[in-house]
Task: structure prediction
Amino acid sequence: MTDTDTNIDTDTNTDTDTDTGVGADTTAETDGYQVLVPIDQNEEHALTQAGYVADLPAASERVEAVLLHVFTPEESEEIPDELGTYKSADRIASVRRAREYLDERDVTVTLLDASGTPAAAIVEAAEDHDAAAVVVGGRKRSTAEEAVFGSVTQSVIHGTARPVVVTGDETA
Result:
């Protein structure tokens, strides 16, 4: 097909192939996108992360905030087996606060929980949900602390090709 075989109707944003008469919608995608927001126990960080998401352009119309809490092996040990069914993200105070904040601003929220190593679970969730970005709550650590304990944020940054936004300590 040559360039002369296609007519572009600029009023309807539809390309029409003159050989077949079939049109294809070329209107820009207006669908929303998901932003993964991994939340630990820190309520201040959770509110800062939620504030960042709520401030995204057209957040109330286009953004779905996927709030993820990863239950670490230590947290899982603290919960008796018979209460395992209660191990869910909505029972974590920091997750509830972030959800309330986003709900008040009409941002769509989905809760997600996982168990395991936080960085690996975050990277896996970002891939599984095809997240447009990951918004993590940063914390200051000394170089020695990072060398000994590692950094979830660093591991996420190095573990995914998706954009990672690190929010600071200011409350939204």
Remarks:
- The first helix runs from residue 43 to 54.
- The helical segments are 43-54, 59-62, 73-78, 93-104, 118-128, 143-149, 152-159.
- The radius of gyration is 21 Å.
- The chain is about 35% helix and 25% strand.
